[in-house]
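new request in #modeling-help
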Amino acid sequence: MEPLKSQESPMDTRYDQKKEDTIYAEWENSGYANPDVCIKKKVTKTAAKPFSIVLPPPNVTGVLHVGHAAMIATEDIMVRFERMRGKKTVWIPGTDHAAIATQSKVEGIIYKKEGKTRYDIGRDELIRRIEEFAKESHDIIISQIKKMGASIDWSREAYTLDEKRSLGVRTAFKRMFDDGLIYRGARMVNWDPKMQTTVSDDEIEWIDEKSPLYYLKYGPFTIATARPETKFGDKYVVMHPSDKRYKEYKHGDKIKLEWINGPVTATVIKDKAIDMSFGTGVMTITPWHDATDMEIAERHSLDKEQIIDYSGKLMGLAGEFSGIHIKKARPLIVEKMKEKGLLDHIEDDYSHRVATNMRGGGIIEPQVKEQWFVAVNKEFKMGPSKIKGIKTGQKVTLKQLMRHVITSGEINIVPKRFEKTYFQWIDNLRDWCISRQIWYGHRVPVWYKKGEVNCGTDAPKGAGWEQDPDTLDTWFSSGLWTFSTLGWPKKSSDFETFHPTSVLETGYDILFFWVARMILMSTYLVGEVPFKNVYLHGLVRDAQGRKMSKSLGNTIDPLGLIDTYGADAVRLALVIGAAPGNDIKMSEDRVRGYRNFSTKVWNASRFVLMNYFPSKVKPKFTKDDLKNIKEFEKIKKTVTAELERFDMNKAGDVLYHYFWHTFADKVIESTKQRLKDNPNEADRMAAQTVLMDISIGSLKLLHPFMPFVTESVWKNMPDEVKKRDLLMVEPW
RNA sequence: GGGUGCUUAGCUCAGUUGGUUAGAGCGUCUCGUUUACACCGAGAAGGCCAGGGGUUCGAAUCCCUUAGCACCCACCA
């Protein structure tokens, strides 16, 4: 056998990142991300076990950030690993219409460019514009997901607002409506006067604020308030029943006193909700605009009056101040009180928290309003159930279902500590307000006609029906994601094969928003858990450890890093050293380090190839050869075991060190002598065989972590070691 | 007010069920042009694993406690 001359080496000393797009195209064209193709091409057995995972759909509000990149890297590792192991593997992509966030964004753009509001351009036109924006955003996101190397099944792509998913939403709504779990009621809601919509409890962000605390003279009492502009209608004065300072006042006493706009009659109310140590221990209440006040008012059947309208302006009750926005009204009112001698004193530097709409909206004003709710504490008869410990026909509440599947262990949360967080949230959960007064999203499938109400998946027959103008909370549709993407409510083999999904991988920040809602929807609607495992990754933070967010503008562009260091390096930097549930601080140094590792993998393989000369001579292995092979086998076992328990971090770390500091530094070095001018052909063959075998094995193990370099190296490997055309589907 | 996490080498962080001299990347220092790789190799310095107490033959790891930081939840006017 004529040895190759080393200068004819087929490979450069550097792996060429520019070829990543070409490699991705090969994967895509192969169709191997689609389990049906894998079966057809006999890469996967028909009877193979399924492995399924849904991609948490990115919002179509912009571009991918590093957090998405971490998520894609982690999931792709799981998916590639399971596919290579021969499982019937599917990873389902999609995007989320993110109703309020997207509309808010587009409204902002329109207002900036044209100075027009949504009311100026109208419902249909606004939706058209949003769809246009969403489409662009979608295309960018998809191309970014591909850049990361995601071996995702594009043939199954879904959108939370597409036709199939919309049917799912209407079906879900109707089922819940018919079961009495969805109801319409006037309740206290979080109203955003800026976006003109309600917001769920979970979408509120509390911001610390310092503001003056005003002490006002209310007849014989002094009351403290941070919001004097809400006090016009106050006609109840509340104190703790066992507060000795006010024992002379009895519950129900009427007191005539002079107030902002003239004399009023105040009624004394005794209620234990009062904190005696706060201020003077006395307060007046504004039930319409405060949840605590509302509860007190409900307990004693007190009057409730609206003082602030939905755009944030004072109403008739405010007398001379009516029509003025609360922000402008405050100083005027304080001034008037001062003149009337109603202002006792002002305490500066009082810190409290203000509720804001985290989706780019304004300051929340609690309001009482008719809305649609999901009743989480109402009993219903469970439909066909495959959930362990829940029987078909059993009486349960949604809250009980959500709790049960975690306590029973049917869903396993990694890391475990988040179970506690989850339970805490469930225990505090109130009925879920699902209606929004924005226009982009799933319209509430309820129609009205002269007092008649009809809920259905389609508009009722006959003329004169008018559909409810409200749209649904975006999480209502994403809650269906694990099964709506598999074809539900229609029967489908995808659903039969892949539900419940194997694992849900997402950031811990949307445990409540999304994970909990999927559990609610899936257990109720399909009688199954949505997934068997929940793997929560940490948040990728900036240099100061702050959460990266579009609104803060501190996002790192993962594409920039991919351009300079390659996708594999970025993937490794985001996965290795990141323990589940712990935050990841992104630094370019780390990426550079892993880029060097990519080069190492490239060059070590190159060396092995340069010394690979097939021959008929039987290799004669030395003791060290056998030891080296044995050591690799051990690494293989460890990596497999770690990946099985979703410890990508550990598996990656082990591989990294093995490949670099054992295989490259020790094994390769120790064979150099034997490969060069060795008269003992059997010994040389042994050396080259050991190197080739370990290389092949290592490339397979490394592939889920760094698919581009490994696939690229694989192309140069001799055909006789390959079982398939792409490393992507080589047997593990 | 409840809850969770973090505090380990100069910097950024790993260390799953407690087990021999505590690890990585980057940085620092010394040496090195050898059949791949300088995006490299060989080696070195650098740590009372936040403080205190306890359990144990043995603790970075388990328990208690103190402090600082971060985050989550909650109706304090």
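bot summary: The domain at 36-181+375-537 of chain A is CATH 3.40.50.620 (Rossmann fold).
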